[in-house]
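Researcher: I'm preparing a figure for a lab meeting and need a structural model of a single chain. I don't have an experimental structure, so a prediction will have to do for now. The sequence is pasted below. Please return the structure as tokens so I can convert it later.
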Amino acid sequence: MADIPVELPHRDELFPDADEWINSGDAVVYKPFAGCHAGPMSKEKGVLYADLDLSEVAKCRRRFDAMGHYARPDVFQLHVNRAPQSPVVFS
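Model: Understood. Here is the structure written out token by token.
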């Protein structure tokens, strides 16, 4: 409750139990390809640490499939101009 401003309308009605967690947190550090490095840290204050293998990051970036199951046509579209293009334009 200490994190909720006293000025919040209906604060005491919304959060009657001062010791209750509003959000349990559940902080987790996941591995790039699946699995859990550390956590979950639930209903406790603290810092979650994990030792990471940075070589996994490069592998994961190469596997990103922008046109596969991550594709969202409302966000990403690929347009190909099939007309012949000049590599140099003089103006």
